[in-house]
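Entry 14. Structure prediction run on the chain below.
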Amino acid sequence: MFKRLRADIQTILDRDPAARSWFEALTCYPGLHALILHRRAHWCWTHGLKWLGRFISHVSRFLTGIEIHPGATIGERVFFDHAMGTVVGETAEIGDGCTIYQGVTLGGTSLYKGAKRHPTLGRDVVVSAGAKVLGGFVVGDGAKIGSNAVVIKPVPAGATAVGIPARILPSKEGTSADATPETPKFTAYGVTQEDDPVSQALRGLIDGATGHEHQIALLWQAIEKLSDKRPCAPADCVPSDAQRVEHFETAKLNELVGK
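Output returned:
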């Protein structure tokens, strides 16, 4: 028990720069308190003491603001950072090393009792503030769920899900978390600017439009040079509104979309 508690405290010290000492982590982090109480509630739940498990869960919710059903399964080194308003459903499973922020819901969409209604998070998954992961599917190892995303389908290992409904961005290193480094850099709140698929799409369109304008300008310049060698005057061979100079504001547009 004490070994697991030490691991939980070390997880807080590793992932939260605001944590200054083990004593502060032990006494001032409701996410840690919620985990400690959940383990008692989960033991009661799995040993037939259903009401007692629910009551401990209810007390934990009152004390910490984090609601974890006693039937949920939580692995090692899980960090509930802030996590006020977080809800974890009965059949949810959270793998080792996951990070859960405030306002997260690991919920279900089915009303069938006994069925797998809530999501399974793999190892080292980051679920950012306000995200809703709804359904009995799997979020793969090392995946990231962006803030306020609504995820209603499986997320591959190492991928990023952002938006409503969530759009899936594959892993930059490959389609599997096995392709990522053994000790990937931790990203607070899960998603960096380059993980937004809308921004990526806009940047691609901007780059494409820039290239097209450049090619058009080169073509008109080439036509103008050729027209100098022909009998007609350049003004007659080349339209007056021909675009010989590029006017596309690539840098400004990239700045607006966050490049």
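The chain is about 35% helix and 15% strand.
Filed with the rest of this week's runs.
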